[in-house]
# Entry
Amino acid sequence: MITTRSDDTAELPEPDGPALLASLGVAFRGQGFTAEIKSGLLRVADGPDGRGVRLDCRRRDGDWDRWWFTWAGGIWLCEADRPFEAITTVKGALRRGGDAHAGAAASAERAVAEVRAEFPDWTITDTETEDGRRWWASRGAPTSTILNRDSDLSASSPEALRSKLRAHR
# Structure
């Protein structure tokens, strides 16, 4: 007798924080980054000797106890079922100088993480333009055509974007 997937009634176990971090590490290594887990945290860097960031994965009480990626300091980054957002944000932090908790870049990254945490149904991203950085909120994965829809919001800072999102509720 041939069985198909629909015949298989076994349920897969829900991944836990360490498994989700390991999976994210594989995704980063697939893109050429150094990614290793040490002391329960995922360290991601441009190379073995490069400056990097440390990430954690923990359940979030205010979001039905779902798994979230966080910066090592506990600042919420994004839901663990949205690894694309984690990868995009970490790449941005590394591009702007490595340690995501240093200087103005750290402040902006924390602000973006807080906006993402407050508005989990929106995809938050930023772009570089001739006029500087632009922050966007959209429903769905960001693409150049999506970021120009009437329903998308944009602002010159994460704080201004948060204000627009609050007014949009």
